[in-house]
Amino acid sequence: MRKPLSIAFIVRDPLPPTRADVATLFGSELPRHGIATELVGQGGGGTASWPGGGMHIVGSLGSRFAPVLSPLWDLRGLLRARRRIRPDCIQVRDKIASSLPALLAAALLRVPFVYWMSFPIVEGYAVRRDEFTGVRWLAHALRAAASRIVLYRLVLPGAHHIFVQSEAMADWLTVRGLDRSRMTAVPIGVDATVFDRARVTPNRDARLDGRRVVLYLGRIARARRSDFLLDVAEGLKADMPDSLVVIAGDAASLDEMAWMRAEIARRDLLEHVLLTGWLPQHEALGYAVRAEVGLSPIPRGALFDVSSPTKLVEYLALGIPSVANDIPDQRLVIEGSGAGLCVPMETTAFVAAIRRLLDDRDLAAGLAQRGPAYVNSHRTYAILGRIVAETYTKILPQADEAV
What we know:
Layout: E1 5-10, H1 20-32, E2 35-43, E3 53-60, H2 66-84, E4 89-93, H3 96-109, E5 113-117, H4 121-129, H5 134-158, E6 161-164, H6 167-175, E7 183-185, E8 212-217, H7 228-239, E9 243-248, H8 254-266, E10 273-275, H9 281-288, E11 293-296, H10 310-317, E12 322-324, H11 328-337, E13 340-342, H12 347-359, H13 361-378, H14 381-395
Parallel strand pairs: 1-2, 1-4, 2-3, 4-5, 5-6, 6-7, 8-9, 8-11, 9-10, 11-12, 12-13
Helix pairs in contact: 1-14, 2-3, 3-5, 4-5, 7-12, 10-13
């Protein structure tokens, strides 16, 4: 019998966590394998408890001093966690500055340091830098340059193990000189009990009645080229006047949402695009199951080529035939599942693929049937939890000790 494990885990997202790859994976699945997690991070206003172990909220992401103080806050949170348990490892997710005190703490405690990389943060800083000019450009340039040195020369080389978002991210880091054997890819999954079509109540929104509904479920952002969805809506509108593109999601800021609404009006698409804004998950899924086709266009490039998008896997779990573009993880899922069409992120290609699914109901039904079976075999958090748990038992020395 293996010794139960405890992980001190510094996270970038606000606490308590809402992302499934933290909340479900570490809060529900890993405890089934005898792995508890002491979460450390800043508060985001929620009050929920943490079922996976302990939660240590120090500071607030709403503070204007958060970018400077969060490493110190996280160190304080680690000290609080240490009073509860002696962790078998210290793990950091996507927080570069906080990784330095975490590395030191791991060395002092003589436990492994693990880094969880769900996004290429440094490259994101570089993109953000180029949105500014003058002094603000210089400030963001300095942050990007310093972060690059810290992450790629100190943190990742000093990590005992690195969890990455996709096989493409592992390949990308290998090219940068990191040892592939020290990486484990953990793509995005779904909670099979939530994304079960039989448990979802279809939304009764009358605006969908009599329409050929095409769905995008996710975040709105200029960086994600969300206006591409409007290009698609225009292409469908031209010879399919009963088409309706439902965009079930919100933006990170009010100005991004205002931009999207203004674009819809400017293009005269108010009758052909329904932008819902933020919805509780059960309501968003209610819209999803009324769709005939799910869309997952993700821009190609350094930021997103190494990502593992959520929405495509969610569509497949719900039995929605999908059109996705050819970033590596989406191509892998489409080819492995046979549950959708993979095309370049070009308006003509997307419109043609959507029309093919809307016109050929037998093809669409066949793709829809394959989706849930693939997800249940490869991309549920129960499966991913087992993979992660097995990795910890291999990389953490204490895991092999008998109780």
